[in-house]
Structures are given as C-alpha cells and as structure tokens.
Amino acid sequence: MIMIDLENKRLASLQQLRAFLAVAETGSFVAASSRVGLSQPALSLTVKALEEELGGRLFDRTSRRVALTSEGRQFRPAAARLVADWHAAFDDIRSLFRMERGRVSTAVLPSVAVGLFPAIAAGFTADHPNIDIEVFDVIAERAAELVYSGRADFGCSVAPAEGGGLDFEPLLDERFLVVHPPDHPLAGSKGIAAKQLAAEPFIALSRASSVRHAVDAALEPAGRRIRPQFEVEQLSTAATLIAAGQGLTAVPASCMALMRLHGLAGTPLVEPEVSRTVGLLRRQGLSLPIAAARLAAGFREGFAALAQEGG
C-alpha cells in the first residue's frame, strides 16, 4: 500500500503557475520575465522550483529556444484552469465584499414586515440594487428557528428563550396603540384605557403572534382581558375591518405605517400601558455577512427614527 504524507507534500503556488504559463506562451524566459514582473534569474528559479515540486522537467532549454516537454504540454491546460479559477474566485469574493451582488435572508415579525420594513428595504435597495432580499415574515418562534438553523442570516423579533444559541440586540421598547377610525368617539384623547377598549368590538390577532402575547400578558394580570369579536391572522385584515367600522385593535407603534395607509389613527393604550421589546437576532459567536450587516444597520436606523417619533 502506498502512503502519501499530505502534511509534507508541497503544492504549486499561483506565482509558479503564472511563471510557467508565461514561459509556455512566449517561448522565452526574457519575454516571460517582463510579463510576470520578475527578473530573469528569479523567473528561472521559480520555474525550477515548480519542476522540483512536480518531479520532472516542464521545458527543454537550449541556447536558442525554450520548448515544452511532453509533460509540460499536458500540464499547461490544467495550469491555465487553476489560474483562471483563482482569478474567478478572487473576483467572486471581491464582488461580495463590494456588494456588487449577493443575497440576504432575514426573518421578520409580521408586524415589523408590514410596518417599518418597506421603508428599510427601500433605502437598502436604493444603495445596493444588485443584492437580493429574502424575507420570512413569521411569528417569533419561527423567526428564532430560522436564524438558529442558518436559513436566515438574522432576524428582527422579540427576545428568544434563554439558552437558544442566539444573541439578542434590543432596538426599541415600543408602546402599543389603539387603532381606530379618525372620527371614532375615542379619537382625540391622550390615551385609551383597557376598560374603554373592552366596551368596543375588539379585533385580535392570532394567539401565536407576539402582538397577541404582549396584549394578553399585560391585560390578564389586571383582570382586564378583552374578549375578541374577531380573531384574524393578518394585520391587513384587521385594518380593513377597522376601516369598515367593525371594531378596534391594539398594535405596536411600528404597525402604524400600515394602518395609516387605510386611513386609520392610533391613540396610546393606557391603564395598563402595553409595550414589547423588539430587536435583532443572530447566531451566537458568528458575524453577519457584509450584506446582511448592512441590512441590519437599516433596521437599527429605522427603529431609532421610530423612537425619536415617540414610538
């Protein structure tokens, strides 16, 4: 049985391959030295080192000419492919660092996806039009799963369960607002108490959503849980029902961008106040790809602007 000591086995360098190809193409060490930017003695030593590594001559040298040996002719196309592949790999990774191409995958709470994300995405694509964005608009539990598995580069969600292998960067403690038509009797007040909200038909999001969890968690201890007349999956459905005069709902401030598109207004929910902390998720110990890091920066800016608005 033949044993190969891979640890002590040397491989040809890129410089050696370039030197070999330059001599093969020009048929001259003098001409090749100018092409690769080496002195003639240095070029000769480089080619000689490559031949020693391979175990035989690649060129027949005479005082008049330099010609490829049979082995050299067989090696030439392989060497050309290796150099071309190296350049292609270098250009490929450089285009990623320069954000000339690429893809970002993010897992975002539905309430953020329909609220802040469109503006964040618009700013990102304006600066980086060749970067594709994959968005998973999913509930918090699924967002954590997608980030942990690597299916999503990062997430924008509420804090995950401890010990889940994820880092959480808080961005905003956002308050909840009662959403209503602008001409509703409760409009114009500084705040709407839970007991006032309980007297109105209530439109709740599904029990799996972080929005529903936050509302129930705040109201139940105070004995003010509100029985929903409607329970829906999508915020857009809740918005159309409110616009049709079918009830009110309570959502985080980041959702108001969508609600305003339906001509709706928001008033802070008080007694008790309801809020949730939203931030960025990523796998522990791993840095983000450069394009994902840029998009994550857009989320930071978007939530910072919302905080300045009093969100």
Strand segment tally: 12
The proportion of residues forming helix, as a percent range, comes to 40-55%
Give the strand content: 15-25%
Anisotropy-based shape: rod-shaped
* End-to-end CA span: 72 Å
- As for the number of domains, it is 2
Global mean pLDDT: 88
Q: Might you state the CATH topology name of the largest domain?
A: D-Maltodextrin-Binding Protein, domain 2
Low-confidence segments: 1-8
Main sheet: strands, sense, barrel? 8 strands, mixed
Query: How large, in whole angstroms, is the Cα Rg?
Result: 32 Å
Using the 3D structure, state the CATH architecture of the largest domain. 3-Layer(aba) Sandwich
CATH class bucket of the largest domain: Alpha Beta
Helix/strand-derived class? alpha/beta
- What's the helix-strand series? HHHEEHEHHEHEEEHEHEHEHEEH
How many helices? The count is: 12
Structural summary, described in words:
With 311 residues, this protein is of the alpha/beta class. The chain has two domains: 14-97, Winged helix-like DNA-binding domain superfamily/Winged helix DNA-binding domain (Arc Repressor Mutant, subunit A), CATH 1.10.10; 102-308, D-Maltodextrin-Binding Protein, domain 2, CATH 3.40.190. The chain has twelve helices and twelve strands. The protein has helices at 14-26, 29-36, 40-54, 70-97, 110-114, 117-127, 140-149, 194-198, 210-219, 235-243, 256-261, 290-308; strands at residues 59-61, 66-68, 102-108, 131-137, 154-158, 166-180, 192-193, 203-205, 230-232, 249-252, 265-270, 275-283. The strands form three sheets. Strands 3, 4, 5, 6, 7, 10, 11 and 12 form an eight-stranded mixed β-sheet that branches. Strands 1-2 form a two-stranded antiparallel ribbon. Strands 8-9 form a two-stranded parallel ribbon. Strand 1 (59-61) and strand 2 form a beta hairpin. The termini are far apart. Mean pLDDT is 88; it is low at 1-8.
